[in-house]
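Researcher: Structure for this, please.
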Amino acid sequence: MSESVLLTDSDDAAITEAVTLLDGWQARLYTLPDLGTVLDAPGVRAVLVSTDNPVRLRMSIELAHARGVPVLVGCSDEAARRRAVELKAEEWFLLPATPAEISARTWSAVARGATLAQHNAQHATQVEQEQMLHDSLTGLPTLPVAIERSRQLFKERGELVVLYFNFVRYSKIEEIYGWEKLDAVLETTASAVREFLDDDELGAARVMVSYTNDDDFIFFHIPASGVAAATEGEITEMVTRLQSHVAAEIEAMHGEDIASLFDIYVGRAHLYHNPKIRLERLIYRGIREAQNASRSLEQRERARRVSDLKSAIRDRGVYVDYHPIVIASTRDIFGYEALARGTLRTLRSPEVMFDVAAEADLIWELSRLCRERALEGMSTRLEPGQLLFLNVDPHDFADPMFTEAGAADPSHIVIEITERTAIKDYPKFRERLKSFRDMGYRFAVDDAGSGYAGLGSIANLEPDFIKLDISLINAIDTNFIKQNLVQTMVGFANDHGAMVIAEGVERAEEFKMVQELGVHLVQGFFLHRPQSASSPIVKMASAGR
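Model: Predicted structure, token format:
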């Protein structure tokens, strides 16, 4: 019989001695890149992890649990202990520990993990079965379930209306705020849709998601006996009311910025039962037809938005909200970020505005207008020593009209580089930045930790300010990995004479955590909401918050 193996990332003498107390065991050191391989070796019965690195700890536990191997964690402090519990390690102990305690904890971990492989298999089967029936995120029935429930009604009535609801900008919410935020928005959406249908004449419709954890919905409307199917006009009117209802719920739960990204395009297909065609196949074809119809509507809407944008640029139909950036330790106003908004409802969201501009090749024209409107408010907005943060895309630096002499006092301007696209030629781009720097401008990298704005941008651009993406700050008080990443970024900034800005701070717990991590500046709804150019200037955040 082969010896039992304890995989460990530490050669501590107490661990070596503890293994001698485990009759028939041997210790074997591992490194994280090799863990997946050595876990498959014969005789491995447990993994002992003592790293202080949250990422390495998480990966070690996930790799071990995926193979049914229990884990015990040597914890250097209380925070490490909480992390081990959060990651569902079978056992933990505080360092330093005696060999006797380590050996006892190892046996306990093995006992707790005896049913781990069986539990994993049962859990996988349970998840598979549940996802076949209902979407775990929204609680809505899945497509196969909805088809089965509608089968007899479809046959008896002889007709079925399929509506495909295409929520076109939900992917943008995920891109900007992270998947956790989109999941929360989808839960709100599903709840609002169900609430609306309960009070609507089409309430008997079958509702389901197209695929589990997806962001589009499918409706089945089967008319009651003796009642005509809903006409296209009636459906259009219902969709308008549904859109207003869901948008109001999203704004109430998640704020105006999220609600501004909410939009629905609905495609429709009217199916008639044909006994010669398999019912499932008939419905799937109808779904594809409705989906294509929704995309056609989306294309027409895009053309209308391009027309709206051209009018907005011609009529200077952009206004600016100024969002305070505060000093974390004192809550004093450090500066303001200029946030451009469209005056037209269809272009209210800056993300929508610039997406449309990119499609229509109007980025330079829109960027010029936004900068002009932002600079117009400097004289009334900024107090001595305060800075104005201007969002600028790398493509703007190629605009002949974007020059170093664009502002009366460059020392009060921070050019916030927002990378919608990757910077391809860093040496040339750095030369362009130098000419601005020589005039007195300072620079910030926006959304660090998201998209293109990674460590490469920070290293190459040498910014004065590093703005951490909202996805890093959201729920940071409960996420050890985010805390570790932010703390590392703050240390880097301190070493290189830069300042870190945490954006998207919406809760007191998040604000307290970023303060503890040493973040220099903070921006978010917890402290201030964006202020229009005509609103009173806030001198200082309320000390009572």
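Researcher: Any notable elements?
Model: The CA atoms of residues 272 and 279 lie 10 Å apart. Residues 538-545 have pLDDT under 50 and may be disordered.
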